Amino acid sequence: MTRQEVIKAARKLYSVPGYAQTTVGNIAYEARVSPATVYAQCGGKEGLLRTLMDIWTTSPTVGRIISDAAAANTGRTKLETLAAGYAAHAAEAGDIMRIVERAAPSSPAAQQFLDVADERHIEALETIAEGIADNGDLADEVSVQDAAKIIFFHFRNPQFALAVETFGWGVDRATQWLVDRVAATILKG
């Protein structure tokens, strides 16, 4: 219970005011524990960031997205399944994604965590792109690796958040627009 309260406090404070501005003392105060407990339970600020990163990257939603997209019958359906999964994952862990993305420029540990997440992400997308190629739906001039990078570029959280929040398109419109752009680029016409 104490560990979960500490994680919850860190997640809240790393979102606002931010990772760099948050101290172990702030987290301890928010969680109503001592700073020593924060270190013992979670390894301090960096350990908490790592814990949040694991929540983001090892969520059961991630596995479901990959398996559902792999099981889809056509390239377009695989992209639509991926897009729906990205929307669900953003609803579940979008705040953590933003925490790590914002912390990365000033925190080598956060940058390292983000690099690992991006590697995992692209590897998973290469598996999906291979499935699109195996179906015969991948455009002839697009390699599996390039298809994965194009999907990654368009669907990753900053672009999704930009379309949903900044442009004000909402989840459905943003998801459809991203699917249409990626499909036009990587699928056979």
Architecture overview:
The protein is an all-alpha fold and 189 residues long. The chain is 81% helix and 0% strand. The chain has ten helices and no strands. It has helices at 2-18, 24-31, 35-42, 44-57, 60-71, 75-103, 108-134, 144-155, 157-166, 170-186. Helix 1 (2-18) crosses helix 2 (24-31). The N and C termini lie far apart (54 Å).
Count every helix, treating DSSP H or I runs of 4 or more residues as helices: 10
Regarding quaternary structure, how should these chains be classified?
single chain
Most strands sheet: none
Order of helices and strands: HHHHHHHHHH
**Mass-distribution shape:** elongated
What's the rounded overall pLDDT mean? 94
Distance between the termini: 54 Å
Number of strands: 0
> Radius of gyration, Cα only, in angstroms?
18 Å
Q: Helicity range of the residues?
A: over 70%
Taken as a percent bin, the fraction of beta residues is: under 5%
Poorly predicted regions are none
Helix/sheet category: mainly alpha
Give a concise summary:
This protein has helices at residues 2-18, 24-31, 35-42, 44-57, 60-71, 75-103, 108-134, 144-155, 157-166, 170-186. The chain is mostly helical and 189 residues long.
Question: Layout of helices and strands, plus pairs?
Answer:
Elements: H1 2-18, H2 24-31, H3 35-42, H4 44-57, H5 60-71, H6 75-103, H7 108-134, H8 144-155, H9 157-166, H10 170-186
Helix pairs in contact: 1-2, 1-4, 1-6, 2-3, 3-4, 4-6, 4-7, 5-6, 6-7, 6-9, 6-10, 7-8, 8-10, 9-10
Q: What key attributes describe this structure?
A:
189 residues, mainly alpha
